[in-house]
Amino acid sequence: MGKTVIHWFRRDLRITDNTALHAASKASESVVPVYISSGWKNNHHWTGSNRQSFLCGSLSALDGNLRAVGSRLVIRQGDAVAELEKLVAETGASAIFYNRDPDPFGRSVEERLAKTAARLGIEIHAFKDIAIHERREVLTGAGETFRVFTPYSKAWEKLPKPPIVERIKKLTSPNISSLELPTLASWGLPPAAGGVLEPGEKAARERMREFLDRGLARYGANRDIPFGRHTSRLSQDLRFGLLSIRELHQACLQKADSLDAAGRGSAMKYIAELVWREFYMQILWNYPEVLAQEFNPKYRGMKWPGTLANFEKWKNGETGFPIVDAAMRELRETGFMHNRTRMIAAMFLTKDLHLDWRLGEQYFMQTLVDGEIASNNGGWQWSAGTGADAAPYFRIQNPWSQTKRFDPDAAYIKKWVPELRDVPAEKLMDAPPPGVRLVKNYPPPVVDHSAARDITLELFKSSLS
Ligand SMILES: Cc1cc2nc3c(=O)[nH]c(=O)nc-3n(C[C@H](O)[C@H](O)[C@H](O)COP(=O)(O)OP(=O)(O)OC[C@H]3O[C@@H](n4cnc5c(N)ncnc54)[C@H](O)[C@@H]3O)c2cc1C
Questions:
Q1: Which residues of 179-218 are buried (b: 16+ CB within 10 A; e: fewer)?
Q2: Is 339 a catalytic residue?
Q3: What confidence score (pLDDT) does residue 1 get?
Q4: What is the arrangement of strands in the sheet containing 95-99, beginning at the earlier edge strand?
Q5: Would you say the pTM of this structure is higher than 0.85?
Q6: Looking at 8, 187, 380, 416, which residue is catalytic?
Q7: Where do the domains of the chain lie?
Q8: What region, left, alpha or beta, does residue 88 occupy, with left being phi > 0 and alpha being psi -120 to 50 degrees?
Q9: Known active-site residue 187
Q10: Is the pLDDT of residue 420 over 70?
Q11: CATH number of the domain at 131-164+200-286, please?
Q12: Of these residues, 273, 286, 398, 419, which one is catalytic?
C-alpha cells in the first residue's frame, strides 16, 4: 500500500475501537481523516436541527480527539464520491478506508465510489463496524434471512462476536486544507431544541459508564417507565458511532458477571434491545422496500383516511390525550422520546387518528436526535401493525390503560404538559366525559378511543379482503 490512505468518517465519529480507522492506521504511515458534509440547504425532509446540531458537536469533538493524537479532521462538503476523488488527486492516496452503512442511501454512495475507485486504480477497504452482525450473517438453518425477531435473536446470540480493536494513540496526516467545521448555519437551519444531550465521544463514554454502573442492573424492571432516567440514553451515540457496539456489548457482558441473578437478567434484557437495533438494520438491508412499502405484503396499499388537521394536533401535542401530548412535547423540547411513549404516540397516530405511518416516520426523522432509518422504520411499522411483529394487527394499545400502567402518578404527563399540573392524577387516567375540558386551556380528546379502534379493525380487515 502507498504512503498515504484516506479514512472516510461516516457514522463512526470516534477514535476508540473504530475498525476501518484502525486498519487504515496500520496499513499506512499517513492517514487523511475526512468527513464530507452534505450540501443541502434549508429544510430537509429526513433530518433537522436537533440531529444536525448533535452531529456538529460530535464532529468538533472528533477534531479535538484527532488533534490530541497528532492529526486533525478534514472537512469537505458536497457529493461524497466527487469529494473523495478530489482528495485522492490532492494527496496521492492509494486507498480509501471506511465502515459500511446499512442504509440504501449510504450503500448507493458506496457502489458509486467502488466504480470511481476502479477507474482511478485505487483500493477500497470497507469494514463491518456499525453492527456486531451484518446483513447476511444471522440466517435460518436453510440459509434464509429472518423476518421475526425471537428466532433472529436466538441465532444472533449463538454466533461468535468480532474482537475489539485498540484506540488510536497516534495518527500522522499530511497537512492539507479543510473547510470550517459545519454549524447549523451551514445548512440554513434554525437553533436546535434546548434539551439535546452533550455530543462527542467523551460525553458518550461517560453516559455509557454511568449506565453500566447505575442503570444496567435495574434496566429490566424500570425500562418502561417514561418519567425519570431508567434507560441508557445511548441511542444517539450508537447512531453516530460515538460508541462502538462491540465495546458496549462486551462491557454489558462483563458487568453482568458481577451482578446477582436479577441483575444478570436485566443485563440480558438490555442486550436484547441492542439486538433489536441489528434486527431492524438487517431488515432494511435485506428488504429495502420497507422504506416505501409495508413490510407485511398483506397490508400494502392500505387506506389511511385520517386528516392533516389531526396530524398537526399530534405534532403539536394537542390531541387531548395527555400521555400522547406529553410524548410529543418531550420530543419537541429535547429531540428525544422514551421508547414506551414512542410506541404509544405512533400507535395513536396510526390506530386512533388513522394517519399513514410514513407521516409519523418522517416527522420523527426530522426531529429525533437519534433518528436512524432502520430503527425508526421498524418502530413505525411495528406500531402501525404492518411490520415485523409476531402479533397480528389487532394489537391496539389503549392510551388510557397505557397511562395507568406506565405513568400512574402522571409524573411524566405533568412534566411535559404544564397545563395539567394541578389536575389530580386519577383524572388523567381516563377520558373525561364528552365535551368536558380538564382545564380551560387543554383540549378535550380529539377522538373516542374505542370508536377509533373499531374503525382501525375495519381498515385492516378491508385491506385483507
Ligand atoms: C416509532 C418508533 C420509532 C423509533 N425510532 C428510533 C430511531 O429513529 N432511532 C433509534 O435509535 N431508535 C428508535 N426507536 C427505538 C427506541 O425507541 C430507541 O432506541 C430508544 O428509545 C432510545 O433510548 P435509549 O438509548 O435510552 O434506549 P435503551 O432502552 O437504553 O436501549 C439501548 C439501545 O438499544 C437500541 N434499541 C432499544 N430499543 C430499540 C428498538 N425498539 N428498536 C431498535 N433499537 C432499539 C437503541 O440503540 C438503544 O440506544 C424507535 C421506536 C419506535 C417505537
A1: eebbebebbebeebbeebbebbbebbbebbeebbeebbbe
A2: yes
A3: 65
A4: 74-77, 30-37, 4-9, 95-99, 123-127
A5: yes
A6: 380
A7: 1-128, 131-164+200-286, 297-464
A8: alpha
A9: no
A10: yes
A11: 1.25.40.80
A12: 273
